[in-house]
Structures are given as C-alpha cells and as structure tokens.
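Can't paste images in this forum, so I'm doing it all in text. The chain is below; anyone willing to post the predicted structure tokens underneath?
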Amino acid sequence: MRPSAWFQCIRGCAGQHPLGEVLYRCPTCGSLLEVGHDLEALRAVDPAAWRLRISERARGPWPYRSGVWSAWEMVQPEVAPENIVSLGEGNSVLLPASRYGAELGLGELYVKQCGTSHTGSFKDLGMTVLVSSVKQMIADGSPVRAVACASTGDTSAALAAYGAAAGIPVIVLLPKGKISAAQLLQPIAHGALVCSLDTDFDGCMRVVERLTHDPGLYLGNSLNSLRVEGQKTIAVEICEQLGWQLPDWVLVPGGNLGNVSAIAKGFRELQALGLIDRLPRLVCCQAARANPLYRAFARARAAGRVLTEADYVAVKAESTQASAIQIGAPVSLPKAIAALTQTDGLVEEASETELAEAAARGDRSGLFCCPHTGVALACLEKLVARGTISRDARVVVISTAHGLKFGEFKDRYHRSENDFPSALANRPIELGSEPEAVVGEIHRLLDSVAAGT
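Text version of the structure:
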C-alpha cells in the first residue's frame, strides 16, 4: 500500500487537509500546519529494509538518488515520480572536522556540509519538495501560476533555480542592500521577478504573506510546511552517514527557525519508525543581534522553568554578518520551541566577534565557513568550554551554506574592516619578480611562521 500524507494543525485541531490544497495555516485556529504521515503504512517496511532502501537509492536511478527523494515515501508520497523536480540536492558530505575538533578537545566532531548542494545552501532540500508539489498541483488542475518568497538570499536562490527547472514563474522579495552579491545574482540569473524592498526580512515577509492571499500565487517560505519535509532529510542523511549511530548533539544556525524544527521532525519520525532508538539533543544557534529565541530561552531559564511560547517577544533584528538569520520575528517559532522541548535542546548566541573568529578558525582547518556556520561553531566553542557539551560527545554542526556565497564577509575580515580586530587576518604579500629575491623572501616568511613570529 502506498503511504499517504496530509496537512494537519500543530495545535491538534481536528481535520486532515490535502497537500494539494493552497493552505498555510489551520483553517480552524490559524496556527501553523505540519505534514502528517501514515506511519502505520510506513511501518509495513521494517527498519532494516528502510535503511537498505535509502542507501541503495543514493546509487540508483534518477530522481531517487537525491538525498531527499531517496526517502520519497517519508517525505511527499502525494507527488508522482514524473512530477518530481530534482537538481541532485542532498547527499552532502558529513565531514569529520578532526583538526578543528582537536583544538576544542572534542574527540568526534562532524560538519554537515549542506552548502555543497546545487544552489549552495540547505534551502534546496525544502525547495525540491515545494516546487515538486506545485508541479503536481498544476498537473491536477490547480490555478497556481507563480511561486513567491521573501528571502535574505538563499531561499530566493533555491526557489528561482527549482522554479526555472520546472518552468514555473518565481517572484522574489529581497531586503534592499542586506544580501550578498552572489545571493542576489542567483535569482536574477534564473529569470525570477526580483523585487528589492526598502525594508528588512520581516517587512518582506509581511508583503509576501499579503501577496499570497491570491490563491494563484503560492507561498514559498518556511511558513509553508512542505519545505520542512525536505529539510528534515538532513536527519536521515546524518544517521545513514554515521552507520545509523546517532550523534549526541546537533547544532543548527537559527533565523526563521524552520531548519531546527525540520531536523527535529526528521529524527522524531525515524524514531517512530524504529530506525533509531533515541533523539539527539539540538542546539539552536542565533546571532546576538537577531536572537529572539535565545532571549526567550534565557528568560525561561532565569525563571527556572521550561521554555514556552509565552517567553517569546519579537525583536527588531539588528545588522549582523550572519545576514541569512537576521530575523526578529521568526515564523516557525512554535515548531522550534516544540522541537527543543522534545529533544531536551538548548539555545545559544554568538556575538559578531565570536562568529567571525570561529568561522576563521574553522577556515584554518579547511572548512571555509559561511557566517551562519560561524555562529554555530562559536556556540559550540562556548558550550564545550562550559562543560555543557562533554569532550567525549559525538557532535554534528550543520553548515547551512557554502562560504563562496559570502566572499564579502571573508574579505572584510581579512582586511580588518570590521569594528573588532581580526585575530587571524591574512593578506597577500606583495613581492617582486626576480626569482632569487622572491625565493629568499618566501623562505624567510616560512621560517617566521615556524618560529611563531
């Protein structure tokens, strides 16, 4: 029997709604939706067979070799195979960060390199599901004529690429002057209708929600819970790549908070299907200049109680180098709080100096980090130093985007153009052209490095 899936209210309101319906919130109470799955049908395949199926599909025919669609039945079984829009997303490397981990005293540290996906970020994982679902909806007669999103960069790149592959028009709303040049060029290159708004991400989000009141314009942001179904496969990949041995901790950069809730959902469903027997602890890592969830967590901790939605207050996000998580009113907050509760999770923050220096230290061990990964690494350093994360723990850090998308961030750091000193700044050394003189100077420089001067 083919498994089925549907939209359902995260608050438990009665009713199951078709995934082909243009619906973003519960029609009864207005809360967020999530995708529910027929777990009994999925349990018809035993855990060992699931593990084998996922592993074999990664080397099998298109589109199931995708890191998302290798778990098709668990993700979006309502999409027919001919309507799957895949650009080879997922199956990103789980990199043993041995040198960086050794500097922290950690015995087992991995970085999940989600930025090696097609458009350079983890957003591809959600967009393949969302755009495939839209293609299925159109095939079934839906009046959807375009997909729209607000973005701080990576979402727009992914939506534009997958929309172009599917032949579906895309509308992108970006905060003027607040994204990198590389992120702006991607949706332009893919032919999206790109609108630069004189506001921040939260302002763009208000506009796109109003825009998508038109049922012909489909919402591509993480308010749409179809995105979560793709992003949850990060959990599946981590387990498969660790030989189905779980990490103790998973650290996730957090802005709109869709990813931390998605990864938790992935682990929970694997546990429900018997593929794993426990849940790792999650850490949501926020930039200190855009930290509403951290503030809520700190408020609850100071009061000696568990984090709840009552602890949350939206903030005006300040400018941060981690521009993709510069969000003060995260849409997925209720899901993220539930995820942290279910996984006995934590929230930590990183200052601008901390995130830049952590990214630089990661780069010195070969990682080439985006600023958001820098946030997660800085939070890891703090938690290890405090003893919250023990040195014998198995830890996975989620790297959300490729460092090449944030060349300006790295250039400013190494030019020492920030309002803090760059401890690891490294600039090209200008030399002449006479071979003997150049060789002599290089040897002198190497000797200085060896001497630590």
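The mean pLDDT is 95. Residues 94-119+228-411 form a domain with the Rossmann fold fold (CATH 3.40.50.1100).
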